[in-house]
Amino acid sequence: EFCDCFLAAGQAPPRVKHLGQAPSAFLRQTVDQTPTPKPVPHYEVVVLQKVWKLRPGNRNLLEALALLMHALRKNSRSYNSFPQSLRNVMEGSANPWLSSFQNLYNRFFLTSL
């Protein structure tokens, strides 16, 4: 269900609505992952009318997922559909120092979301 609702390839948004809503944020795969050897992952995060272009690399998918969840947390009921353990990481309750790190990250990098 995640891929159908929150992942797009090309310029079109995802094909399926989540909880009856068009996505307020989704991941866009910018590099085809089918060739061998596989290229490094490269995803962008589309939030309403803004596209967050992240650096390609081994951490790209993890960074894109974190940014997607942050956007969904602010703008969508879909955030609550993610597993609680993943939401705990995003909210900083899984690790005491993570909350401070997340606050710092949010302050400098996500102020315009």
Description:
- This protein has 113 residues and is α+β, with helices and mostly antiparallel strands.
- It is 38% helix and 15% strand.
- It contains four helices and four strands; from the N terminus they run H-E-E-E-E-H-H-H.
- The protein has a four-stranded mixed β-sheet with strand order 1-2-3-4.
- The chain is globular and about 35 Å long.
- It starts with a helix and ends with a helix.
- The relative contact order is 0.13.
List keywords for this structure.
15% strand, 113 residues, alpha+beta, 4 helices, 38% helix
Specify the helix fraction band: 25-40%
Query: What ranges have pLDDT less than 50 throughout 5 or more consecutive residues?
Result: none
Q: Going across the major beta sheet, what is the strand order?
A: 1-2-3-4
Strand content: 15-25%
- The Cα radius of gyration reads 14 Å
The total beta strand count reads 4
Q: Helix and strand string, N-terminal first?
A: HEEEEHHH
